[in-house]
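testing teh design pipeline on a random one, pls ignore if ur not involved
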């Protein structure tokens, strides 16, 4: 390893070089968090994207795992030939670093929560499988042939009602945005327990199952709460 010329030194210290290195490391780290797709499918709002770009943390982990780091480079004799590592070796090292870091930092429960509760802002607006999977699960749009139902219709008092199913954004973006905004504003007016009931109904749980999960003696208590939610919805709709 010889001396670095001034032009190379300027390049290494530039923001562009740091960004390229950060992105490269994040791409190596991301697959071992257990999330679908590639890191390019996620936005900077995603907690996992942010963790993957925590360059100092991963640099420290690699140094601890394999012994290579900035200090080690400074200690090398002049014209030392740095060995070329095979891709499988690099991936193996990063896999161990991510696994050890998750365990040491206690990130397991947090990553589980992020995995279970994604949000629209986590994904780039591209037609990727991870985004389509998110939209299908979150908004209950299983295919482009799903028949959408109006919000008013979904609040009818049927035993097998589906609460707050939204239009498929692929079919009608304007209806999707308007319905989603209306749903979120209405739900924000409800007490936490009522929001939980609505969410569980949206996820397909029966009244009996919800009663057991929320500690009701029987499902009649859940039905009464849903009737109260419907009344509030009617009042909210009239005000709007």
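output:
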């Amino acid at each position: 390893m010889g001396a670095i010329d001034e032009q190379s030194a300027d390049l290494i210290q530039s923001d562009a070089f740091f960004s390229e290195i950060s992105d490269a490391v994040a791409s190596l780290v991301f697959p071992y968090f257990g999330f679908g797709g590639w890191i390019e499918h996620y936005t900077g709002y995603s907690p996992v994207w942010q963790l993957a770009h925590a360059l100092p943390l991963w640099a420290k982990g690699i140094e601890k795992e394999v012994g290579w780091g900035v200090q080690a480079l400074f200690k090398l004799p002049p014209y030392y030939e740095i060995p070329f590592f095979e891709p499988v070796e690099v991936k193996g090292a990063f896999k161990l670093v991510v696994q050890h870091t998750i365990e040491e930092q206690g990130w397991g429960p947090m990553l589980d929560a992020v995995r279970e509760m994604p949000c629209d802002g986590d994904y780039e607006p591209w037609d990727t499988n991870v985004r389509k999977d998110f939209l299908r699960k979150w908004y209950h749009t299983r295919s482009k042939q799903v028949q959408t139902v109006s919000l008013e219709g979904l609040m009818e008092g049927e035993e097998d009602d589906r609460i707050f199913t939204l239009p498929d954004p692929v079919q009608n973006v304007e209806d999707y945005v308007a319905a989603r905004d209306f749903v979120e504003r209405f739900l924000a007016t409800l007490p936490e327990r009522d929001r939980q009931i609505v969410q569980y109904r949206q996820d397909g749980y029966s009244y009996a199952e919800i009663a057991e999960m929320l500690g009701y003696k029987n499902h009649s208590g859940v039905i009464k709460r849903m009737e109260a939610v419907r009344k509030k919805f009617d009042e909210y709709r009239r005000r709007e």
